[in-house]
Design a protein that fits this description.
With about 140 residues, the protein is of the alpha/beta class. It is built from six helices and five strands. Helices cover about 45% and strands about 20% of the residues. The chain has a single domain, classed as 3-Layer(aba) Sandwich (Mannitol-specific EII, Chain A).
């Protein structure tokens, strides 16, 4: 599961997004994945419902959220979506987030092992995070990946 290739395949890199509600951020992250046949419309709503029931367990201190749901919630193909927000948004009581990477995996092993590992590897670099936050276009993001 190569994050760069899957982001490009789904046309799912969104830069300079301004939203104030975390639910809208989830729906925005899901939109290109739905439009391009990677997930069903129910997947984003499942992420929202999980968040309401269990909290934003996918938010990390560095201002990064990795929202996801179980494979059976509508994953058709392994996928990633990235939303870079102009202003941080809080997901309930979470830290403020400005980098959102939604992912969907067709099976629970890939869901845990490959998906999260790929994201952590990508974001485990302070310089890359700073450059992602400063990016002004999809092309700049792709170059950073």
């Amino acid at each position: 599961m190569a994050i760069k290739e899957l982001l490009i395949a789904a046309n799912a890199i969104q830069v300079g997004v301004t939203l104030s509600r975390w639910q809208d951020v989830i729906r925005q992250a899901a939109r290109p994945l739905v439009e391009n046949g990677f997930i069903s419309e129910q997947y984003g709503e499942a992420v929202i419902q999980n968040t309401l029931e269990h909290g934003a367990y996918y938010v990390f201190d560095e201002g990064i959220a990795i929202p996801h749901a179980r494979p059976e919630c509508g994953v058709k193909r392994n996928c990633f979506s990235m939303v870079l927000l102009t202003e941080p948004v809080r997901f309930g009581d979470s830290e403020a987030v400005d980098i959102v990477i939604m992912f969907g995996a067709r099976d629970s092993n890939a869901h845990i092992e490959e998906g999260i590992r790929a994201i952590v590897d990508l974001l485990d670099n302070d310089d890359r995070l700073a450059r992602l936050r400063a990016a002004n276009s999809k092309e700049e993001v792709v170059a950073l990946l």
